[in-house]
Request: fold
Amino acid sequence: MTENTLSDIPTRIRAGLRNRLQRLRWWFALRVGGAPNCAVCGDEAAWIAETEGEPRCFRHIPSEGSDAIRDVEPADCFTDWEDDA
Reply:
């Protein structure tokens, strides 16, 4: 093994652990909290409309366009979207 390969091992281990923890967060969020539903049609949401503060599916992007949305995160699975309205 070269010196460069040996120095990459801790970085690769950290990246692997980070990816595994992220997958575990998503698994737990989706199993326990469930995916948020689109506020317009009730389908599974892919984004959160920042301007309206509600989940949206692929078909219901806000009128402001892609600048006004963000991806769904694991914490969004536990948010009570009905209460926020």
Summary: Strands lie at 47-49, 54-56, 69-71. The CA atoms of residues 14 and 20 lie 10 Å apart.
